[in-house]
Design a protein that fits this description.
Layout (H helix, E strand, L loop, with lengths): L2 E2 L2 E4 L2 E4 L10 H5 L2 E10 L5 E4 L1 H15 L4 H4 L2 H14 L6 E9 L13 E9 L9 E5 L20 H13 L4 E5 L5 E3 L4 E6 L2 E4 L10 H13 L3 E3 L4 H6 L2 E6 L3 E8 L2 E2 L7 H14 L10 E4 L1
Parallel strand pairs: 8-9, 8-15, 12-13
Antiparallel strand pairs: 1-7, 2-3, 2-7, 4-5, 4-6, 5-17, 6-7, 9-10, 11-12, 11-14, 14-15, 15-16
Bound molecules: 4'-deoxy-4'-aminopyridoxal-5'-phosphate.
The site of 4'-deoxy-4'-aminopyridoxal-5'-phosphate (PMP) has 13 residues, from helix 6.
């Protein structure tokens, strides 16, 4: 469990998190009809607060709403307005540690039935502290009995709250079986992602990750890693991955805002590589950390300084 800072944006202004409450009759509560994103803010060595890829997080929120048919968010929330409010919430809480910021667009119409267009939405933004959701130096994963919801059922490309029941089923199944997290397969039986992180494998010195048509969330960390690999001169192949390819991969790692970069050392009771954090995984993690803390100037445009 993490620590939640007291000041949150909710509906029309910044208020105490205790006052940020939705009606039990809202579509957000009745149907899980909310879309969200989570971005990190890191404290650099010189004390500056660095928010990561705010533009991309805003755009993913807009895209998620668009896919689901929530059409009242974008007209009311320009990127400029969204960034101003997000920045204000971070400043008001006077953070001194690395934090996560969760921004959610809730459909707050009361009992409208199962539909999405022309309904009232409200934005919430809150700040919290939490450790990574996966052990970073040796995660053990189990292939889930639960398949990823396909794009033509509940599109995983949209980060919609209700769809996370799929992740909950898969993660709980893994925990119940004594593992840290799960490998979720798509409906064709190919490797998709974890409960809340994307996956990469290393084979023959190349990075391989499922493509964006594999029913996964287009993770912002995934995209960052592809760009870091490009800078390293490492080839990245986006293609379907068979489950047993994981077993024989040289290295496997997971990535996500809340998972950070987690070295996977075991899948379905099979040791991956030599069962230790792989060299390429460790190298990518170091470079990714540099990007987040503003130490890699080539990625400076990913960071927004919050004064
Ligand atoms: N897949 C799923 C299902 C997720 O919930 C997350 C976490 N947002 C990710 C992948 C990783 O996405 P990101 O790197 O944008 O955090």
């Amino acid at each position: 469990m993490g620590y939640i800072y007291d000041k949150a944006y909710f509906d029309d202004g910044i208020k105490s998190i205790d006052e940020a409450k939705l009606s039990v009759a809202s579509s957000a509560v009745l149907y899980g009809l909310s879309v969200y994103t989570v971005f990190p803010v890191h404290i650099a060595k010189d004390g500056s607060k660095l928010a990561f890829r705010l533009h991309d997080h805003y755009q993913r929120l807009v895209n998620s709403a668009h896919i689901i048919g929530i059409d009242t968010f974008k007209p009311e929330w320009s990127e400029k307005r969204f960034l101003q409010v997000a920045t204000d919430v971070i400043k008001t809480n006077q953070i001194t540690d690395n934090v996560f910021v969760r921004a959610t667009v809730h459909v707050d119409e009361l009992i409208p039935g199962p539909r999405s267009r022309g309904l009232k939405t409200i934005l919430s933004i809150f700040v919290y502290k939490s450790g990574p959701i996966l052990p970073n130096d040796g995660a053990r994963l189990k292939t889930s009995v639960w398949r990823r919801v396909p794009d033509d059922a509940i599109p995983p490309r949209a980060k919609v709250n209700g769809a996370y029941v799929n992740s909950v089923l898969a993660k709980q199944d893994a925990i119940d079986s004594g593992y840290d997290d799960c490998i979720i397969l798509d409906s064709d039986g190919h490797v998709c992602e974890l409960s809340a992180a994307n996956i990469f494998i290393v084979r023959g010195g190349k990075l391989i990750t499922p493509g964006v048509t594999s029913d996964l969330l287009e993770g912002i960390s995934r995209n960052t890693i592809i760009q870091i690999a490009d800078q390293m001169g490492l080839e990245v192949v986006e293609r379907s991955i068979g489950l047993t390819e994981l077993y024989i991969a040289d290295e496997v790692f997971a990535c996500g805002t809340s998972a950070y970069i987690s070295s996977v050392i075991e899948v379905d009771a099979r040791k991956i590589g030599d069962g230790k954090v792989g060299k390429i995984t460790a190298d990518i993690r170091d470079r990714y950390t540099d990007v987040l803390y503003g130490k890699n100037k080539a990625f400076a445009e990913f960071l927004t300084v919050i004064n």
